[in-house]
Specification:
elongated; alpha+beta; OB fold (Dihydrolipoamide Acetyltransferase, E2P); Elongation Factor Tu (Ef-tu), domain 3; conserved putative lor/sdh protein from methanococcus maripaludis s2 fold; 4 helices; 6-stranded antiparallel beta barrel
Length: 402
């Protein structure tokens, strides 16, 4: 009687099994992939031309297709539409108003940080600088005379020819001229800075874009754009991932930055890099989070604004036991598979670690064991099974769309 109760419990578990699906990793196998079949209207496997009259619960062998659990590295990869963005982009603006006297670069030219780009008319500032220098020389001469007057007064005071007040007056005059000379020097430094603004230099290295000004153009301080400099090596790729994939990505980043591959349109070239940035908040309007990866661009084929396809490795399991996702059974009690041992099907509880395309990484199963894939609707715990040729599988993509 005890064995009948156990059999009934197993039969109830198998009967209650329902197959559902999801695409990509849900962390810990929370849902199954979309290509998994439902429990009742499942497609029967091919029998290789042999008639089979086996029925559920009958004495004959149940025709099923089997798969062998494999132990191998398992990657969860997302596919995303992405855009290439420069690592930095600097808008060139003049720090003084004036007329463009020289343009030292050409549109599209590669420039280095500090390179001279434009020269503006600085005659007025140069004249002001010359006036400041002349004023400094005048005040320095007055200071020298005041110093001599102070020394003379101190000598006369020592011989009691002048009062102490005369010395104090001479000292105050000397100190005042010292302050004047310092002010003149500060004014000269400021004038030199203004003159230096007439030379517009590159703030960073990169490629210069269109130049909208010419010799003779009038520019205003911080108002007229003289062009942009884009840093293209390295290049960033920007994309968005669903918020439910964020935990797996962050967990992966604790070990090492996830790998990202970018396929360029029109050329057979793949650029690789690593995730370098995850935004600090999820976009509530879209339910996604912005992510960036940094790519090398030594050959210059990566161009800012280019729309590309990105493959992001959000999860990696070194030694995973992998089975077809279609073999996973879902029930209120958890996930399981039909494992075939000694020609008979047995319910084997498993934990799904991750899904990718038509495969699932699981724990609770040993590599090399065979599991039922097709024909599960006719299988019961303890059923004798007969392996037949599986039906042709549907084509699968290279990654999960976020």
């Amino acid at each position: 009687m005890k064995y009948r109760i156990v059999w009934a419990g197993q039969l109830l578990l198998a009967a209650s099994v329902g197959l559902s699906a999801c695409g990509g990793a849900k962390g810990g196998g929370e849902s199954a992939p979309a290509n998994a079949e439902k429990a009742s209207p499942a497609t029967k496997p091919e029998t290789g031309g042999k008639a089979t009259d086996a029925k559920p619960g009958g004495g004959g062998a149940v025709p099923v297709s089997l798969a062998t659990a494999e132990q191998k590295p398992f990657d969860v990869v997302l596919l995303a539409s992405a855009a290439l963005v420069p690592a930095s982009m600097v808008d060139i603006r003049a720090q003084m108003s004036g007329v463009v006297r020289q343009v030292h670069v050409k549109e599209g030219q590669t420039v280095k940080a500090g390179q001279l780009l434009f020269t503006l008319d600085a005659q007025a500032d140069q004249a002001n600088l010359a006036r400041m220098k002349a004023q400094l020389a005048k005040d320095q001469a007055l200071l020298a005379d005041a110093q001599r007057q102070l020394e003379r007064a101190q000598d006369l005071l020592a011989r009691n020819f002048v009062s102490r007040g005369a010395v104090d007056t001479a000292m105050a005059n000397r100190d005042g001229l010292q302050a004047t000379v310092k002010a003149d020097q500060a004014a000269i430094d400021a004038a030199r800075v203004n003159v230096s603004y007439s030379q517009v230099r590159a703030a960073s290295s990169g490629r210069l874009g269109a130049v909208p000004v010419f010799v003779g153009s009038t520019v205003k301080v911080n108002d007229t754009s003289l062009g942009t400099i884009v840093q293209s090596d390295p290049m960033d790729v920007q994309f968005a991932i669903p918020q439910d994939r964020l935990p797996a990505l962050l967990e992966r980043m604790k070990k090492e930055p996830p790998k990202v591959e970018v396929e360029l349109p029109g050329v057979k070239r793949t650029a690789t890099g690593q995730v370098s940035f995850v935004d600090n908040a999820v976009d509530a309007a879209t339910g996604t989070v912005r992510v960036k990866a940094r790519l090398k661009n030594t050959d210059g084929l990566l161009w800012p604004g280019l729309i590309v396809k990105a493959r992001i490795q959000v999860q990696h399991i070194d030694d995973a036991v992998v089975v077809p996702a279609q073999a996973i059974l879902q029930s209120p009690r958890g996930t399981a598979v039909f494992a075939v041992r000694d020609g008979k099907a047995e319910i084997q509880p498993v934990k799904v670690l991750a899904y990718q395309d038509d495969q699932a990484a699981v724990s609770g199963l040993t590599a090399g064991e065979k599991v039922v894939v097709d024909g599960r609707q006719n299988v019961r715990p303890g059923s004798v099974v007969n392996e037949v040729k599986p039906a042709a599988p549907a084509s699968a993509g290279k990654g999960s769309q976020p």
